[in-house]
Amino acid sequence: MNWFILFVAGLLEIGWAIGLKYTEGFTRLWPTVGTVISLIVSFALLGIAMRSLPVGTAYAVWVGIGAVGTAILGILLFGDSADLPRILSLCLICAGIVGLKLTHA
Predict the structure, then answer these.
(1) CB of 13 within 8 A of CB of 62?
(2) Which end of the chain has fewer CB atoms within 10 angstroms, the N or the C?
(3) What is the pTM of this model?
(4) Which three-class secondary structure state does DSSP give residue 77?
């Protein structure tokens, strides 16, 4: 169950990271409110998941999910670069996340 909680926390990290773009420097109320709520819930769920998962593994997986998801949405929503080296780098992050999950005792 803690892995699922960690996954949801990672998804919410994507939400607040992308939300930062929509806040336009915290000048837009509703995107700011959504971003702050997503941030708080993401951190809370990360903390809950860390009760039984190793801190390094949990944090790395949370950051990895957030980084990969945010980069993918950046490509899809904002026209960020999708060149081969970038895609390969995102695949390496995914491989690292899988490796951490597989080696968790």
Answers:
(1) yes
(2) C
(3) 0.90
(4) helix
- Tokens read off for 53: 């998962």
Within 8 A by CB and 6+ apart from 60, the residues are 96, 97, 100
Q: pLDDT tens track of the chain, all 105 residues? A: 999 999 999 999 999 999 999 999 999 999 999 999 999 999 999 999 999 999 999 999 999 999 999 999 999 999 999 999 999 999 999 999 999 888 876
Question: Is the separation of the CB atoms in 14 and 65 below 8 Å?
Answer: yes
Q: Which residues contact 62 (CB under 8 A, 6 or more apart)?
A: 6, 9, 10, 13, 42, 46, 49
In whole angstroms, give the CA distance from residue 71 to residue 75: 6
* Cα 18 from Cα 3, distance rounded (Å): 23
- The per-residue b/e assignment along 20-52, b for 16 or more CB within 10 angstroms, e otherwise, is beebeeeeeeebbebbeebbebbeebbebbbee
